[in-house]
Amino acid sequence: MKIYSIILFIALSISGANMVHAQTAEEIKKTEQSIKKNGQYALLVMKAQHLKAAIKTGVDFKSKSAKIDFHMVACGELVKQISTDQTLKHLVGEAVNKHGLKILVCGLSIEQFEVDQTLLPEETPVTANGLVYLFGLQEQGFKTVIL
């Protein structure tokens, strides 16, 4: 019985190995091109590097179609960073004004990290609760990611 189990295991391993393959460049490109021209996308971001990546992604999407609706919600310590970091403020302002992206900040994070709201970019409206806002976008059909 033990020998039959070993033979069966080897046979299944060999046949299963033939089915595994890496995605081809063509398959990757096809997946990346499946973004809808009127798509609705949103990200909740909590770190500066994620905000930067989200903005780059949003700019890329909007360059392909102005009809794409792209939201970002800043939460956590990122809200405090935005209020104090001039580079981030500039990046946010440019993303909204030049590229038509929507960037909001979480009111709970403003309270938790005692952020002076007047230091936030004027382009960033405040939502009382970033998670509730994201759930609302999901209910409206948005594809959402939390980073």
Write the layout of secondary structure elements.
Blueprint: H1 2-19, H2 25-32, E1 40-45, H3 48-64, E2 69-74, H4 77-84, H5 86-97, E3 102-106, H6 107-112, E4 126-127, H7 130-139, E5 143-146
Parallel strand pairs: 1-2, 1-5, 2-3, 3-4
Order of helices and strands: HHEHEHHEHEHE
Distance between the termini: 50 Å
Radius of gyration: 22 Å
The averaged pLDDT comes out at 89
How many distinct folded domains?
1
Structural class assignment: alpha/beta
Shape category: globular
The third-level CATH topology is Hypothetical Protein Ychn, Chain: A
Poorly predicted runs are none
Keywords: Signal
Signal peptide: 1-22
InterPro entries: DsrEFH-like (IPR027396)
Description:
With 147 residues, this protein is an alpha/beta fold. The chain has a single domain, classed as DsrEFH-like (Hypothetical Protein Ychn, Chain: A, 3-Layer(aba) Sandwich), CATH 3.40.1260.10. It has helices spanning 2-19, 25-32, 48-64, 77-84, 86-97, 107-112, 130-139; strands spanning 40-45, 69-74, 102-106, 126-127, 143-146. The longest helix is centred in the first third of the chain and has 18 residues, at 2-19. The chain is globular and about 70 Å long.
Summarize the structure.
It is built from seven helices and five strands. It has 147 residues and is α/β, with parallel strands linked by helices.
